[in-house]
């Protein structure tokens, strides 16, 4: 059986070094609150507010380290609350996506693009992918065995020797299946 731990991803933002400087002050360095499942990734102590056409969320957690481009990842439910209509995309694929205003303690940034609903995916270490004969970008069918078992299709395989095995879904998907971080998903098929 191909078992994978589940990681539920609440709304969060990735910021570029330039935007960290604008929002928190020149030369500011994010403080690590806790490490995440992927090596070198962390939840920062710092948060920002995001403002859309219809609503605002305060205390949106920043995930580090800094990225080349800033990106807000939200659930479809969050999108309704903000009044934006982001596409479902893989992280980093932000071309043509909606923008959002980001407010920090030292300033604000108007992102021209960068709001997405993250596509569900599984991070595979290269050795795990080889063991299970799974290729990068392959689509998978995965069963979540929560209080409301559910099978997700089109789960994207992302493979790197820098990754640790973990399935990432958003809060809407987790709530639909009744699962939480640390639960176990099972890969049932390769599409």
From TrEMBL:
Cofactor(s) this protein cannot do without: Zn(2+)
Uppermost EC category: transferase
Reactions mediated catalytically: propanoyl-CoA + phosphate = propanoyl phosphate + CoA
Pfam family name, one: PTAC
Record pathway: Polyol metabolism; 1,2-propanediol degradation
Example of a GO MF term: acyltransferase activity, transferring groups other than amino-acyl groups
Transmembrane segments: none
Protein EC: 2.3.1.222
GO biological process: 1,2-propanediol catabolic process
Entry keywords, A to Z: Acyltransferase, Metal-binding, Transferase, Zinc
Keyword presence, Metal-binding: yes
Keyword GTP-binding belongs to the record: no
PANTHER family given in the database record: PHOSPHATE PROPANOYLTRANSFERASE
Family membership: Belongs to the PduL family.
General function of this protein: Involved in 1,2-propanediol (1,2-PD) degradation by catalyzing the conversion of propanoyl-CoA to propanoyl-phosphate.
The name this protein goes by in its record: Phosphate propanoyltransferase
Native source organism of the sequence: Paenibacillus thalictri
């Amino acid at each position: 059986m191909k078992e994978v731990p589940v990681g539920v991803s609440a709304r969060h933002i990735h910021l570029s070094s330039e935007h960290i400087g604008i929002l928190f002050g020149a030369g500011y360095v994010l403080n690590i609150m806790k490490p995440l499942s992927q090596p070198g990734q962390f939840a920062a102590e710092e948060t920002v507010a995001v403002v859309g056409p219809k609503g605002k969320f305060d205390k949106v957690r920043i995930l580090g380290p800094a990225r080349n481009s800033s990106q807000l990842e939200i659930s479809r439910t969050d999108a309704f609350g903000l009044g934006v209509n982001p596409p479902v995309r893989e992280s980093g694929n932000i071309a043509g996506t909606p923008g959002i205003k980001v407010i920090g303690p030292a300033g604000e940034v108007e992102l021209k693009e960068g709001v997405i609903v993250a596509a569900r995916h599984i991070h595979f270490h290269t050795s795990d992918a080889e063991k299970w004969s799974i290729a990068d970008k392959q689509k998978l069918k995965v069963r979540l065995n929560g209080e409301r078992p559910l099978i997700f299709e089109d789960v994207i395989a992302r493979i790197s020797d820098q990754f640790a095995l973990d399935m990432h879904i958003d809060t809407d998907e987790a709530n639909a299946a009744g699962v939480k971080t640390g639960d176990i998903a099972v890969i049932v098929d390769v599409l």
